[in-house]
């Protein structure tokens, strides 16, 4: 039989499409022809594959060789099709047994000497193979630990083509090759702790509420007031990852090629600090072959934007939609690419170019300069920040007192309890945190009594709230109630939540 096919896969963003690598060898003018909507690097596979087979001690007779990567309407990119193409050719020649290729997904790049090189995006591909009912995956040896994270599917890590040849012919076995059962080793974290922060009890309270409900947080204050210091300690109060969350985060880093070889599983929530010179493509993802951006790399954790007003306005505006939809959709001629963007956004900024407004004794900016600086952050972007907190400068007396605040461990315990309440409340829903409550479900989860409704009616008119900022207040109040262990939102919870919208009213005017 001169025809054979091997199962492989291609990534489109975070989505995996299975690809059938078909090979047909027949008599005729010797040639090597590849079809199936291929990129340049896939077309170059012909030379790599033939040379790798020869240098592995195998011979290919001079025949007409046609390789098809099906389905033909999906763009095939990358060098990861080298190994399945080589195996399809060998199977067509009858040089390898076909039994072990049944329900087996193959992926790997070949060197000219026949070695199998590491690839990116292995984790989501193996997860898709398991979902489609495959019994095994043949992957590069350097990707074996990463692939084994999924579990309940045989992972065969191979170093060279000759090794795969011997395995398929039953000469050697890889029953447990590359399989890693326990991937929960924690990386050593840093020693940053909320206890080290002088004063700023109100700002620390705002950060606790933000993390408990996964609300976006904006901190504003003069230089040296501790905005960045506090923001960089937020990871110390983030809840620990579940195994499911860890795998989802690791998939993004796998596609981006950022996993560590020895410890591929991400066991800590990401905290991505982005410099204000970042481009739009680097922040939200993009390129001719779209890759995840910083917002996707921070998914499941925190995206920190320091010096918010220094970012290009177009870059900040590009964040508005993903902050609502919790995902990035990039449309290209070769297809749609989807990446997660389920982040908690933390931002810090000064109130003016010199940083000291509204202290007119220190501020040297003109009203025009202040207005131009503040309005680099647009009202639509500002309305997506759930909590806006002013961080005042510290006094000398506060710096002389040894920090007496709570430790990050104590704060995290309360947050974990609030998160537990939310998981129980939203069991079966599409979201798991108060920040994700939709407008249609507001009445169900954020019900107010008559006194609360009367209060919010007055607040809505006096502060000239929009529907979005009104709902933000209710969601923050819901989180405050959860931290207090209350089933219903009370007036004191609403009062505190309204207080977190006063800063934008003070500096930007109408919300």
Short description:
36% of the residues lie in helices and 17% in strands.
Protein described:
By secondary structure, the protein is an alpha/beta fold. The protein folds into two domains: 3-168, Ribosomal Protein S5, domain 2 (2-Layer Sandwich), CATH 3.30.230.10; 194-428, P-loop containing nucleotide triphosphate hydrolases (Rossmann fold). It contains 22 helices and 16 strands. It has helices spanning 40-43, 45-55, 82-92, 122-131, 144-147, 161-168, 201-213, 227-231, 243-256, 280-284, 294-297, 313-317, 320-325, 367-374, 379-382, 396-400, 408-425, 442-445, 450-462, 467-483, 491-499, 502-508, and strands at 3-12, 15-26, 31-35, 64-70, 104-106, 109-110, 116-117, 136-140, 154-158, 217-220, 271-274, 302-305, 327-332, 335-340, 344-349, 387-390. The radius of gyration is 28 Å and the shape is elongated. The termini are far apart. This is YifB family Mg chelatase-like AAA ATPase.
Supply database-style keywords.
single chain; 511 residues; alpha/beta; Ribosomal Protein S5, domain 2; Rossmann fold; five-stranded parallel sheet
How large is the radius of gyration?
28 Å
Please state the oligomeric state of the protein chains shown.
Answer: single chain
Quick one: CATH superfamily of the largest domain? P-loop containing nucleotide triphosphate hydrolases
In what range is the share of β-strand residues? 15-25%
Q: State the strand order across the main sheet.
A: 11-12-15-10-16
Major sheet, described briefly?
5 strands, parallel
CATH architecture of the largest domain: 3-Layer(aba) Sandwich
């Amino acid at each position: 039989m001169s025809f054979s096919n091997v199962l492989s896969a291609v990534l489109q963003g975070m989505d995996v499409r299975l690809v059938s690598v078909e090979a047909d060898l027949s008599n005729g003018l010797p040639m090597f022809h590849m079809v199936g909507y291929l990129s340049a690097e896939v077309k170059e596979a012909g030379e790599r594959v033939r040379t790798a087979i020869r240098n592995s001690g195998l011979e290919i007779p001079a025949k007409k060789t046609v390789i098809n990567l099906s389905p033909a309407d999906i763009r095939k990119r990358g060098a990861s099709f080298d190994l399945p193409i080589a195996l399809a050719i060998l199977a067509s020649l009858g040089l390898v047994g076909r039994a072990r290729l049944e329900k087996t997904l193959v992926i790997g790049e070949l060197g000219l000497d026949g070695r199998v090189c590491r690839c990116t995006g292995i984790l989501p591909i193996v997860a898709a193979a398991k979902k489609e009912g495959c019994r095994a995956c043949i992957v590069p040896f350097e990707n074996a630990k990463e692939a084994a994270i999924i579990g309940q599917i045989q992972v065969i890590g191979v170093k060279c083509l000759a090794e795969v040849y011997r395995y398929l012919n039953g000469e050697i076995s890889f029953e447990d090759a590359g399989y890693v059962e326990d991937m929960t080793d924690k990386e050593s974290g840093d020693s940053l702790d909320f206890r080290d922060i002088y004063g700023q009890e109100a700002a620390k309270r705002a950060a606790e509420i933000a993390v408990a409900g996964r609300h976006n947080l904006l901190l504003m204050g003069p230089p040296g007031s501790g905005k960045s210091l506090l923001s960089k300690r937020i990871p110390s109060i983030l809840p620990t990852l579940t195994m499911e969350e860890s795998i989802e985060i690791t998939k993004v880093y796998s596609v981006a090629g950022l996993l560590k070889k020895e410890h591929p599983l991400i066991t800590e929530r990401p905290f991505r600090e982005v410099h204000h010179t970042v481009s739009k493509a680097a922040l939200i993802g993009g390129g001719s072959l779209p890759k995840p951006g910083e917002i996707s790399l921070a998914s499941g954790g925190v995206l920190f934007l320091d010096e918010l007003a220094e970012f290009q306005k177009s870059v900040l505006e590009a964040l508005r939609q993903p902050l609502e939809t919790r995902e990035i959709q990039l449309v290209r001629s070769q297809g749609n690419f989807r990446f997660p963007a389920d982040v908690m956004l933390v931002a810090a900024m000064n109130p003016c170019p010199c940083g000291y407004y509204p202290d007119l004794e220190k501020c040297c900016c003109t009203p025009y300069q202040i207005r131009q600086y503040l309005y680099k952050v647009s009202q639509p972007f500002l309305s997506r920040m759930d909590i806006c907190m002013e961080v005042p400068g510290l006094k000398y007396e506060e710096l002389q007192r040894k920090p007496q605040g709570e430790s990050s461990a104590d704060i995290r315990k309360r947050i974990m309890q609030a998160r537990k309440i939310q998981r129980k409340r939203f069991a079966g829903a599409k979201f798991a945190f108060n920040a994700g409550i939709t407008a249609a479900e507001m009445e169900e989860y954020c019900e107010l009594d008559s006194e609360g409704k009367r209060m919010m009616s007055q607040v809505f008119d006096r502060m000239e709230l929009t529907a979005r900022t009104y709902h933000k207040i209710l969601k923050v109040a819901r989180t405050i109630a959860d931290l207090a262990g209350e089933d219903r939102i009370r007036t004191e919870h609403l009062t505190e939540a309204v207080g977190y919208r006063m800063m934008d009213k003070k500096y930007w005017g109408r919300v």
